[in-house]
Design goal:
single chain, 269 residues, mainly alpha, 2 domains, two-stranded antiparallel ribbon, 9 helices, globular
Amino acid sequence: MTRAPASFTDLRARTLSAVVMIAIGAGAIWAGGLVFTGLVCVLMGLMVYELLRMLDPARAPAMALAASAVAAAVVPLLWLAMQSTSFGVATLGIFMLSGAIGLAVRGLAGREQAIASLYLLLILMAGLSLLMLREMFGLLWVLWLVALVIGSDVAGYFAGRLIGGPKLWPRVSPKKTWSGTVAGWLLAALIGAGFMGPLGAGAGLIVISVLVAMAGQAGDIAESAIKRHAGVKDSSNLIPGHGGVLDRFDAMIAAAAMVLVLGGLGFVV
């Protein structure tokens, strides 16, 4: 059977949007501090908003926006709480996190509430991870993470369209192929090797990089499953060629959360 020719009809819109996002992201990463924290909070809020609107279209936009703002505000507060050695402050941080999630998912049906709670926790973990990487360990670690997410996504996009082959999980994400997935792993390994010197890390960074890229790919699939459950194609239409903020940053969410977990276990920085 002759394979259909590679399709790049959305490449121009994707590229232009990506250039704008990279420019904004690079500036915020370079600046750090309140600028980077503000960008992270805005992105977290938009993703929570899209998640709630997907799972509960009947919810008033103002209510969803208010819940999203509260959830996003928890990210820097958790960051401040984690810098404290006080048990009481750390406990307060956990209560704030639980309260934000509870407020956001209030009114959802049982299954949607479980989905929203788990994914909202992942979003907030990702935001916390990004703040920790930038403010505690520096610019290069954030660039490493961003390079992994973008690199594995680009490798998967082109390998999947040029090579094709068996689908990874057609029922959930019909466009993803095994060739694109493996290409993402290979490029992640190369990126990890390239950052060993600048980060002063050993060869273990290569393995860590592949694991983080795998988490990013899993995050992409997880968001695809949520959209399929909600019966929508994109989380929104905010970004031309990419859909919504959640569509563009689904891999970053899971990758950053994986870095937080691996960091907690002592495998990263």
